[in-house]
Amino acid sequence: MGNEFWLYIEPYTFISEDKSFYLFYNTKDLISKSVQKSESIIPLIQGLMNVDNLYSVRLTTQMLQNKQVFDCVKMIQQYGFGDLAESSNEKPVLMPPILNLQHSVERYKQHNVSLGEDALSYLHEVILYVTGACGLNCLFCKSEYKQHRCCTQNDNYLPWDHLKSFLSSLKMVHPRIIITGGNIFLYPNFKDLSAFFKSTGIPCTIAIHWTNLFNGIHYLNELDFGLFQIQIFVNGPYEIDQLCSLSKLMIQYKITICWEISVTSLIEYEKALCLSKHLHTDNIVIKPLYTGLNRKFFEEHVFMDLEDLDTIHLQRQEIFALQTMNLNDFGKLIIKSDGYVYTNVNKEPIGKIGESIKEIVVNALKDDSSWRQTRHNVIPCKKCRFSLICPSLSDYEYVLGKANLCHIVNDEKNEY
User: Fold this and answer.
1) What number of CA atoms fall less than 13 Å from residue 115's CA on the CB side?
2) What is the pLDDT of residues 219-239, one digit of tens each?
3) ω before 391 within 30° of 0 (cis)?
4) Residue 7 in contact with residue 81, Cβ under 8 Å?
5) Helix or strand run (H / E) with residue 271
6) Mean pLDDT: which of 52-56, 77-81, 365-369 is highest?
7) Which of the 8 DSSP states describes residue 175?
């Protein structure tokens, strides 16, 4: 080989950095490696990270005589992050990926180019709180719905004419539709709602507290079980025998169900595991619930550490998506029973039912703090190399008022 080489990284390799380290991630072999920064390797890695260099930089034999540079290059080769090519060959050209979403939004911002009718194609889930009426008094009613997509109690309901018009505007888009409330069975136009779905053939999920379902089981006769499925919330005190009886009843109705069980402590988690063994289905999710008094439970069982990050296996497009969108919120709209539309109920509304659904979606796409709120633009995560692979911000971060639910970055300064 000659005296000069091209050092390049593979198109399935990503690099991020913080104050002291670089992080390399190989999405082909699902391998990550942290490399401590030094005066010798910083120019080399920064060159590879510069998009204008198309993932390759020139490297000389003199540079390789530096031990830190040599070790870094060997590491890149060893873990499949990249390789060397002779400088006599043409410069390797590896094009960085560009998501259609990023391309469309940036064109809109820079040139005021309309996002067009395609904007609605980004909408894939709508959660409708049709009524807040409910006879239950769950202990964490006013806070749980801000962490989970579950029911909540209030004095409002969506007027049927507005709701029907909104649902009709979704016929060509086919997002997943979740109907919830308080107690959906107390919605004044429940029969009209169920008849609408029957007539249009649009599938729908009903999300309801197990007690309201148990007490209103006869309302299921209004539903077309080929179109509807039931999402059952379980929280607070419950008897396993009662829920087993409800589960058996659901089997008789031959309706698809999903259970979501909230837990606030390790004891409740163990009870939920016991319950899940008796529910005659594998479609069960156990979710932690923050009460304001169980932070230690969250720190021990929800916060992430380095071992958790080692279990994250992401493909190339998944990592790139994490850099450009919030995967927990993207494509979702929530309409509360007062008519206001949200991308996340912990944030300000972006519209109101009755307004143009297309314009609401466009607003969500344009807003950097909405569907496109990522760890790359919040403090302290933006300063952490693991933001490359760390899951998107969730409702828990907003409720706890802490962007980094982890034991990796100890900086308590948080900005959303």
Assistant:
1) 23
2) 988 887 778 899 999 998 999
3) no
4) no
5) helix 266-276
6) 77-81
7) -
